[in-house]
Amino acid sequence: MQVYLPIAELSMNLFFLVGIGGAVGFLSGLFGVGGGFLLTPLLIFSGVPAPVAVASVTGQVVAASTSGALSHYRRGGIDLHLAMYLVLSGVLGAFGGVATFAVLRDAGQLDLFISVGFLVLLGFVGTLMLNEAIRAIIKQRKGVVVRERLPNQHNWMHRLPMRVRFKKSRLYISVLPVLIIGLFIGFVGSLLGIGGGFIMVPALVYLLRVPGNVVIGTSLAQVVAMMAATTILHAVQSQSVDIMLAFCLMVGGTAGAQFGASAGKHLRGEQLRGLLAILVLAVAIRFGLSLILAPADPFSMAVLGGAR
Amino acid sequence: MKWWLALVMALLLGMPAQAERLVSQLSNDNIEITSSFDGERMNFFGTIMPDAGSDQKFVTGPFHVVVVVLGPTQNRVARQKTNNFGVWLNTDQVEFDNFPSYFHVLSSARLRDITDITTLTTEYILPEAHTLVANDAGWWKTAVFGRELVRLMTEQGLFGVNEGGVNFLSDNFYSARLTLPSNAPPGPYIALTYVFKDGQVIARKSEGFAVRKIGFERFLALSAVQQPLLYGLVCVVLALFTGWLGGVLFKR
């Protein structure tokens, strides 16, 4: 069944859209990430114009993360205080990202930037996560009891000024690293059409040492709020949010996220992180190859003037 | 006296021995894009008749008919990736202003059998003709990038040449069929019909039709442009609601 997308100005198969929304939603529920970093490239390969794909996926990420965030909220797995700081700085970063997006698109270097951005970001984060997850799994196999975070285990970030107490996370840290993380994720997220959950989760775990039980919930809450703001920014600035496309993806995404979340309960934390790391690395390698390998078609075309 | 003679000669030579006109019709002059829009089939038909006021009773062929369908113009850019120290980058680009977003040619025979390349180019019947316009990039780059742009557009189904797309049902009555793809850009379209005889254009006609979004699709597309803030807010509310509903429905 074909459905016409009024902003993308083409028609696509409804079941295909709901299907990829569901598949990515499953992964987002499983790992607590928005799934934008998979969905945006998938849509672009399916023929959706890149600006429309990036802008509409932000809407889908909101929906996919909402159900996850709500269920974490009921379980008390969200540090709202911490999330608020992250969102405020994230929205600021998103303003910068959406503006840069327009500049790069007009210069014809958006593809390059997206490829390099994904490669560097995903490659770096993926390697870190995989390394950590493998170590944790090996330690556990050897029978070493993995130590829980000690309250006094601090790094240099915790010695910065402007300290704030985050009760739920049992943290008393400077807000500066929190704001910088939010700003960075807001900028990168709106530029690459990703929620930034896969950066947020390791940043919260390794940099801020947020305890595991609130990491995913807080990250999801931040993704919901920041992506909602980014959707509005894209709608106002580039007018390339396709509500039909986003809705088809949302329907699949929310259903998939529920199954993903319940599947996630059967896996251990380090196993989950290891799997996510492999997924992130696979996408990074895919983008790396696209830079190095000779493209199937060295020529490409685009419409100038306006997103559509 | 010389100029007078020349004028008479020109009139005598320039006047066709016979005059034909084309009476043609489109099957639909308004193509409506609805939620289930999956392309649209169009028919072009017409008949070649003696010109009004001439003494001729009938027309003599053989005729060839070429139908050119042109979509709204856009400014397009063609880009080329090159290998720079092992990394493939977009390094070169050529802009084509007012380039047709849709261009299909239907003809009753092979174009090169109908007429010569000069006529095809000057009448803009060949897709490449649209790239052969003055461009800041210089003629060589324009030609190279133009050819690639036409190829890319053809791969998207937006450009095409269908030699044999026009069928003559009798000596002077033809019909042609065109399927507009689902990615046909909305806007004003022009269908130009040329009648050829012995390699010369003897009659031509242009008809316009529109591809328009209607109903809900039109409402959405208009709101996205006219009320972007409200549109964005509605998107977010819809997303939050869908997410919440999904959580409620699948709650376990």
Automatic annotation (TrEMBL), chain A:
**Localisation per UniProt entry:** Cell membrane; Membrane
Q: Name one Pfam family in it.
A: TauE
UniProt keywords (A-Z) are: Cell membrane, Membrane, Transmembrane, Transmembrane helix
| Transmembrane helix in keyword set | yes
Could you tell me which InterPro entries the record lists for this protein?
Answer: TM_pro_TauE-like, TSUP/Inactive_protease-like
Instruction: Mark the transmembrane ranges.
Output: 12-38, 82-104, 110-131, 171-194, 214-236, 243-263, 275-294
Topologically, how does it sit relative to the membrane? Multi-pass membrane protein
The family assignment reads: Belongs to the 4-toluene sulfonate uptake permease (TSUP) (TC 2.A.102) family.
Q: What is this protein called?
A: Probable membrane transporter protein
Q: Which organism is it from?
A: Devosia yakushimensis
State the taxonomy lineage: Bacteria, Pseudomonadati, Pseudomonadota, Alphaproteobacteria, Hyphomicrobiales
TrEMBL record, chain B:
Q: Which InterPro entries match?
A: CHP02186-rel_TM
Q: Where is the signal peptide?
A: 1-19
Note the superkingdom of the native organism.
Answer: Bacteria
What keywords are assigned to this protein?
Membrane, Signal, Transmembrane, Transmembrane helix
Transmembrane portions of the chain: 229-250
What's the name of the protein?
Membrane protein
Q: What species was this sequence derived from?
A: Devosia yakushimensis
